[in-house]
Amino acid sequence: MRVTHVITRLIVGGAQENTVASVLGLRQKPGLEVDLLSGPSSALEGSLESLVESRVSGVESVAPQLTIVPELVRPIHPLKDFIALRRLTEIFQQTKPAIVHTHSGKAGVLGRFAAQRAGVPLIVHTIHGPSFGRFQGPVPNFIFRSAERRAGAITTHFVSVADAMTEQYLAAGIGRAEQYTTIRSGFTLEPFLAAKNDPQLRARWGIAPDEIVIGKIARLFKLKGHDDLLLVAPHLLRRNPKIKFLLVGDGDLGAGFKEAARQLGIEKHFVFTGLVPPTEVPALIGIMDLLAHLSLREGLARALPQALAAGRPVVAYDCDGAKEVCLENETGFLVRPGDLSGLTEQLLLLASDAALRGRLGQRGRERVRNQFAVEKMVDSLHRLYLELAARRGLRA
Description:
By secondary structure, this protein is an alpha/beta fold. Helices cover about 40% and strands about 15% of the residues. The chain has a seven-stranded parallel beta sheet, sandwiched between helices.
């Protein structure tokens, strides 16, 4: 049974890591042939394309492991969108997958419409994060909600990375409850479970042994909350000058954030790692004392369970699925989005209390072990495929 995954781009990011891990894991399941279609990645945001076999875009008699569709781009572009829809349709008609499984906004809409046009029996879509909500204005919300409703009408089944995504999409009139299954975004646990506070790695990044490191893992991009961290940083440092901020990631706003820290006179307290490969993230979490996650748009960020797997407590904005792993005074603390006073107090509380950090981190590690193993994610997807195929009378 052929399964084709489609994603807008394979940059270094949570949805992309989820998709690649799913594809690689599902290829090991008997009876499945799994391939991946993607639009091009940008150099600034990195690429995961090397993890799967890359081929020149086009229609072939046997699907390659990875096909790049140049016209499948993230911004709305009527001409490119039309060409991408046609190319995806041609590929599906040629390779005849039993299941098309889409990811992300643009690929999620175009991929599902192309699958329907090509007569694909089963269409699955993973909701990694909301495409509509309070984070944007009424006109974009109307456009994206309408597109999701139309694509939802031809979707066989939805996979949500968090219960919050199911609730939001059902509230928007997209699909029925029985069409949704929550499957956590799994990852390889062992490197995070083994993460340690390595003095040499700290020294490499200019962090002293006695400094308290507040980490943040996210692209330097709008809606990720770096600006709020910069706003509270001076207040935190006045009350605890031993704090340092370790920002893992890169993006369009990197230069602006660095300049803002310089103008505030606190640049020596900020460490910008730039873009790092996912394999280096566990070690960087190891030298953090806690993680701040301040995104205003995120299904359930992998950084949260990854930090907890390493035994590091989290402070997170109560947004989307964060509350499903950041449990109040159990694995960390939730803060109302934009509540800078509350954010300051919770970060200071954890920065000043090593015993509390240890208790919350240990509890978080115990919970994550049972929910976020990559093997569990792959097994759940495989089981879902077999159930959907059986209902449709398809041979797995």
